Each structure stands twice: as structure tokens, then as C-alpha cells.
Amino acid sequence: MTDPVIRALSASDAHLFDALPDPLGAREGHRRTRFRPDWKRVALRDGEVVARGAWWGGPDDSAPININWFDVAEGEEEAGAELLRSAPWQVELEINLPGDWREKTDLKAAAEARFAAARAAGYELLVERFIYRWTPEQGLPERPGRLRFGAEPDDAVFFDALRRIHSATLDAHALSAIKEGGLDQAAQQELDFFHWCPSPREWWQVAHTPEGDLAGIHIPAHNPTGPTIGFIGVVPEQRGRGYAYDLLAECTHFLVEQGAEFIGGATDRGNFPMAANFAKAGFPVIRERINFDPAGPAA
Questions:
Q1: Where would I find the N-acetyltransferase domain in this sequence (predicted)?
Q2: Per-residue pLDDT reduced to its tens digit, 39-68
């Protein structure tokens, strides 16, 4: 068997990316995603595409922020690993999967082949996530009316709230940032991401109890693929009262009032309280996402 040839694509040969089957339905999941041809790479063996990856970033980014489409042909895990290892960007890998992939033998085998390739390239599992999509037929969640919401122009208020929220968090990405650089880094990464989003800064809201105490924050957002529940967080001293649902309901209403015809959302599979709130608010799980970190040692 000949060694695979790894190639970056261009506008003239971008069609090669479509040469592999798509058993996990990535194409449908990326209908609104805009990929740059030169950020797509393929592995060819004897002229046939046996692995592919699409690196992704915002329209103004000079380098990609993640890989969110990665496929390998049957038995070509090592070619997929080499595709990842040889890339000029070592960024987080997202493997997007149908919600029922664990129950269907063919989908599970396809998913596990991609996991094996990622691990062989030195990637380590970071987290498994639920991906949600609200549409109007789900109905708007009821607003409990217990909190007072308002805009807050001072980033320092959000930075402080994020530090408090992340001091006791279940979120794997936040925990990774805390391990690397402490609460300040975790809070700043959140702020940087939402400033990067194309939605207005004026949308960010704080929530207070009737007594005037800070209960939490919610950030309605648009990422490059559409409206999304950007962030929901309750400060530690206000937990146990179900306020995360209040924040989620308000965030949903806010986005609909801005014209959203669908709303995305996500939470870690292990964050059982937030998953329950999404279900209560009428957000069905449409896909799952497995995130791998490139920082691990090669398997």
C-alpha cells in the first residue's frame, strides 16, 4: 500500500473534498457554514481521497479556530491521523454526529473510526456535547417573571460575573481554561468570543433578583451560522433556585424579538442541570458533538 499524499485544496480543486461518502450527515449540519477552500485538506492514496478535514474560522480571522468537519474512509484511520498531524494549525477538533449515533451500528463504527484517527494524531477527548435547535413550532418557553433583566455596557461587570460563575462550573471548556490560566483566563476567553461574534454588544444582559442582587447573566448571540444561546450563567450564591431556566427563557424570547426563526444551543452531556433546562424550554437535541483537544501526547 502506498503512503498517503496530503494536500491542501484551492478553489480549482475544492471538489475533491466531496469525493468521500458522508455517513454522519456532516454536509447537512454545515448547510450554513462557510468554509475557505484553502483551509480544506485531503489525504489521497493512489489518487483516491481517503480522509478529509475542513478547518474553520470567522470571515475576518487570519487562522482557523477549529476543525469542524473530519472524515476517514473505512480502514484509513492512519491516513486521517497524518492529515491532522501534518496540518499547519493545531486547533480543537469537533466531530459532529447524529443524535442516534450510539444506537446504530454503522454510525457508531464511522464515529469510532474518526475518534481513533484523532487519538492516533495526538488528540485527547475534551468533552461530549448536546447540540440543540429551537424552532417556532416548539413554542416559546414561559417567562417565570422572577428576575429583572437589563443591558449592561461595562465589560468589567461581565468579567466579574464570569469569574464567579466559573468558580464552580461543570463546563469542560471553562475548566480547561481555568487549569491553564486560572479564572481570569476563563472569563476573558468568554468575553473575547462574544466580542468576536457578529451580534451587537448591546444584547448582553444581566439579571437581578427583585431585591437587587445579581442572579446571573445571559448572552443572546449570533455566531457566523445563526442565532444562538451564547451563554447562560448563574452566580454560585444564587444557585438552587432554578434561575438558569429563567435566563434561558429570557434569552430565547430576546432572540425571537430580534427576528430569529431558529435558535441554536449547546451544553456538555455531563451538565445534567443545564440539559434539563434546555429540554424544559423546548430545545430538542438534534446532534451531538465530540470535542478533542490537540494538546495530548500522540497515542
A1: 163-299
A2: 999 999 999 999 999 999 988 899 999 999
pLDDT tens-digit profile of 190-210?
A: 999 999 999 999 999 999 999
Query: Would you mind telling me the total number of residues written for the chain in this entry?
Result: 299
Q: According to DSSP H, which parts of the chain are helical?
A: 26-29, 77-85, 105-120, 155-166, 172-196, 243-257, 272-280
Alpha carbon of 275 to those of 110, 163, 222, 247: distances in Å?
26, 22, 21, 14
CB 185 within 8 A of CB 178: yes
Is the pTM of the predicted complex or chain greater than 0.90? Answer: yes
> What gap in Å lies between CA 188 and CA 175, rounded to an integer?
13
* pLDDT surpassing 90 at residue 34: no
> Rounded to 5 degrees, what are φ and ψ at 43?
-110, 130
Distance between CA 236 and CA 256 in Å, rounded? 28
The band of 7, judged by pLDDT with boundaries at 50, 70 and 90, is: very high
